[in-house]
Amino acid sequence: ADLFDGIVMAEQRFHGEGYQEGYAEGIHAGMAEGRRCGASQGARIGSEIGCYLGFALTWHGLLQNSTDEKNSKKIRALDSLIGMIQKFPYEDSTYDKLQEDLEKIRGKFKQVRSMLNIQSDFRIGTERSSLTF
């Protein structure tokens, strides 16, 4: 009876062992893929935010000496965009409102761009990121 039990139970035992090995391999592969994806997405967001900050700081510098009332509204909008970017939680990967804050920054950037009457095209590609006017 013991001989037949070993044969009958072999399929179940091998199935269990195969499942455990596959599960462990899947966890390892998932972690590696998650790190790669996270690094890629983080770089993409960092590049986008960096372009917005460079844009805002450049225009702020160009408009800061102007006394025109229209320009003071533009400067306030630029200050708001710069403040939002500076408060963005770059280091906190667990921040639950990351996407919400990113969308607010994108919206403020569009508003500032509209106030400055500037058309832009932000593209992120595999070779490079660019902000063209």
Give a structural overview.
The chain is mainly α. The protein has one domain. It contains 3 helices and 2 strands. It has a two-stranded antiparallel sheet with strand order 1-2. Helix 2 packs antiparallel against helix 3 (98-115). The model has no long low-confidence stretch (mean pLDDT 85).
Helix content: over 70%
Structural class per helix/strand content? mainly alpha
Oligomer: single chain
Radius of gyration: 26 Å
Low-confidence stretches: none
Beta content? 5-15%
Tell me about the biggest sheet? 2 strands, antiparallel
Task: Identify the strand order in the major beta sheet.
Answer: 1-2
Molecular shape: rod-shaped
Could you write a compact summary of the structure shown?
This protein has 133 residues and is mainly α. Helices cover 74% and strands 6% of the residues.
Question: Layout of SSEs?
Answer:
Blueprint: H1 2-63, H2 69-87, H3 98-115, E1 121-124, E2 129-132
Antiparallel strand pairs: 1-2
Helix pairs in contact: 1-2, 2-3
